[in-house]
Design goal:
Number of domains: 1
Strand content: under 5%
Distance between the termini: 62 Å
Order of helices and strands: HHHH
Oligomer: single chain
Number of strands: 0
Largest sheet: none
Shape: rod-shaped
Number of helices: 4
Helix content: 55-70%
């Protein structure tokens, strides 16, 4: 079954990290539901999470969380590298312009 939408991109990284922490500690039980999320203070994430994680066992939920967090970390590193490269290029361009 194919599920449309934006996946769990609506959920803040900090909330996904909290959820992972609660799962590792055994404080969040799977399959997840609104009551479990609310017990951990994550009720505001219920709609997007349950749309994609509903009915999954703990191993599956952990796999999804780890994959999403790894993707986001990689993207954030790439964005930071690009910003640094752009900043350096701007400095070099300014230096070249000053020398002309």
């Amino acid at each position: 079954m194919l599920i449309g939408g934006v996946g769990v991109s609506e959920v803040q990284t900090s909330d996904l990290k909290s959820m992972l922490k609660f799962l590792h500690r055994g404080e969040l039980k799977c399959p997840i539901n609104v009551a479990e999320l609310a017990r951990c203070g994550l009720q505001h994430t219920a709609e997007p999470l349950l749309r994609h994680l509903h009915g999954l066992d703990e191993r599956a939920v952990l796999a999804v969380l780890v994959a999403v967090l790894a993707e986001r970390a990689g993207f954030e590193r790439a964005v930071a590298k690009k910003a640094l490269a752009d900043e350096l290029q701007a400095k070099w361009d300014a230096q070249d312009a000053a020398e002309e």
